């Protein structure tokens, strides 16, 4: 089976059969890591990891994924150390790197940069985060995490908490979860940081249930509590960030007697206290680790290796 896309810039490109195929392949990749440390499916292939905005998890899990597939990695980090700082366009960068690598993963601070890159890329292109836009591979690994932690996705009630306006992970994950019409959403955010209408409109069009609230207690009733940080780097007004940055703080006390799985794309900057980490419900480090098998699955399918 093959994916319906050859470049991935948005979660909206992923259909239900793509999602199910990637979930199944990720599980196979995870088993291969546990058994043999990985596979050699991508022997002779090269991944270019272009990260023009800070990253720990996405970059290192893409690189680990390619290495565990038996491939190799080249990378560029930070606009200041690349020829983009000399005025080179994203398009020219991608045209050049496509001659060095078999697949490209790029993170860039500008929303829409991934679409520009994919439009000219001659090799499979993957959006690793474009400003406040999309983060489709985070959504895929989140989907895999929900399936593993909750035993399935159908019927799950997910509460997304925090900066829903600028948080690209919650935009992509909501769009991906809308492939499963029995999923319900509770969006918990400060009034100034609501889920964008382009995302809630999609849910309305599909007849999917959601509520919007400013009260974290309503989120604590969900099966999955998806915490997010307030995105400091997207604020023009530093005082506004300071006012909102710790609008919601999840503590172990708040989780007492609750059955929810706690997720967070990380990094956290105070919105989950460390006493939560020891609880069985705390899935956020397992979630980060799930990025490797899911990104292995995506690369393997895009390169037609499986
Ligand atoms: N979740 C995530 O995108 O983390 P990084 O910014 O560290 O890649």
Please, could you describe this protein's structure?
- The chain has helices spanning 16-36, 57-68, 90-97, 113-120, 136-150, 168-177, 197-206, 216-219, 238-244, 252-255, 284-289, 291-302; strands at residues 46-51, 72-77, 103-108, 125-130, 157-161, 184-188, 210-213, 224-227, 261-263.
- The mean pLDDT is 96.
- The protein contains twelve helices and nine strands.
- It is globular and about 50 Å long.
- The protein has 306 residues and is of the alpha/beta class.
- Helix 4 (113-120) links the parallel strand 3 (103-108) and strand 4.
- The longest helix is centred in the N-terminal third of the chain and has 21 residues, at 16-36.
- The chain has a five-stranded parallel beta sheet with strand order 7-6-5-8-9.
- It folds into two domains: 11-134 and 289-302, Rossmann fold; 136-288, 3-Layer(aba) Sandwich (Rossmann fold).
- Bound molecules: phosphoric acid mono(formamide)ester.
- Phosphoric acid mono(formamide)ester is lined by residues 55-58, 129, 138, 265-267.
Give me a quick take on this structure.
With 306 residues, the protein is an alpha/beta fold. Helices cover 38% and strands 15% of the residues. The strands form 2 sheets. A 5-stranded parallel beta sheet has the order 7-6-5-8-9.
